[in-house]
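Hi U.,

Before I forget, here's the chain from the pilot set. I'm dumping it here mostly so it's searchable later in email.
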Amino acid sequence: MVMLAWPSRRVLRTAIEGRGWKAGIIPARRSVRRTLAILFATALVSVFGATACGGVQENLQKRAQEEVEKGRQKVEQRVQEERKKAEKKVQEKMKEGQKRVEEEVRKAQ
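Structure:
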């Protein structure tokens, strides 16, 4: 591959046999433009792909937070139910104790 420098354009000359002199000339600007276009397209795809992944990650975080919140609510409900049960048992025991005390007072009289 031979590189020729002309005042207005750089041109790459490749050896293509049997096709004539002009068939073997590839303008350097065109290949640079293609390369830049490919690089630009790749950059855009990677940027938009990253933002799309970021949206998915946000959705996953929201779901995880919702699941944690549901778990907290269930635990709080269970704690409240157990607390109510314990209070009922305490009240029943207190009533039984009061009845016993009253019966003992009646027997003593």
